[in-house]
């Protein structure tokens, strides 16, 4: 589903992704862990071209783009973005739209389906994330956990082949974390391919097939999630996990 090869990205001459190789198969749940500043968000943003990599190659679905040889086109960006839906730490709902409007805005604009099909699907998804009774409220009137579940529903409305989550629960109070993790876990059960940046290690071990540990712009360890997150081979991974346990 996703193949990344020798991906590099610098900001102002400071290399952030130094040479990333990574593969995600269809239906896999992959988690990405690593210290603050190691490049996790940058990697996710490169995956849907919110950042343009300097070098390397990304293949996602049937679309393949190489970087560094010639500038990427608007069509490349559009084609790549079609495959993924992103959920951010800070929800990013539109404040002036109700939940229902938030989640139907993109599909209604894209006009890929009839309006009544889109509205029906919105109803089903809001039910799935437990927000049916809140569909006419504005984001301001909802808890962080509810807003994040709405953000997940909004991304799902576009039928992405891959869902990308960047620390989806780190802005939430502890009692709200579980309801969001439950929704993500149900997507995993449905076979949704996902890449999740998270510090929720118990959750990651339970739902992820594979884990990648990033350090200083490289992936320094990868393997089955329960091995990488419970019995890592690399010292750097071990040190990072020990720090998390101390928190
Ligand atoms: N737009 C940008 N301009 C300049 N530097 C940036 C930009 N985005 C990220 N960086 C730098 O790149 C490095 C990696 O940032 P990134 O956000 O990818 O790390 P992260 O692993 O997601 O960290 P965290 O766990 O804190 O979210 C950091 O040093 C950051 O300051
Ligand atoms: Mg980040």
- Under CATH at level 1, the class of the largest domain stands as Alpha Beta
- The rounded distance between the terminal residues' Cα atoms is 35 Å
Given the structure, what is the number of helices?
9
Helix content range? 25-40%
Bound molecules: adenosine-5'-triphosphate, magnesium ion
Question: How many individual β-strands?
Answer: 10
- Biggest sheet strand order reads 6-7-8-3-9-10
In total, the number of domains comes to 2
Uncertain segments:
none
Report the major sheet: 6 strands, mixed
Strand fraction equals 25-35%
Q: What does the radius of gyration come to?
A: 18 Å
State the shape: globular
Q: How would you spell out the order of helices and strands? A: EEEHEEHEHHHEHEHEEHH
Looking at CATH, the homologous superfamily of the largest domain is P-loop containing nucleotide triphosphate hydrolases
CATH architecture of the largest domain: 3-Layer(aba) Sandwich
- Based on secondary structure, the structural category is alpha/beta
**Average residue-wise pLDDT:** 94
Pfam families: ABC_tran
Membrane topology: Peripheral membrane protein
Protein name: Cystine transport system ATP-binding protein
GO molecular function: ABC-type amino acid transporter activity; ATP binding; ATP hydrolysis activity
Offer a concise description of the structure.
With 247 residues, the chain is an alpha/beta fold.
Summary keywords:
single chain, 247 residues, Rossmann fold, ABC_ATPase_HisP-typ, membrane, Cystine transport system ATP-binding protein, alpha/beta, ATP hydrolysis activity, binds magnesium ion, binds adenosine-5'-triphosphate, MetN_ABC_transporter-like, 6-stranded mixed β-sheet
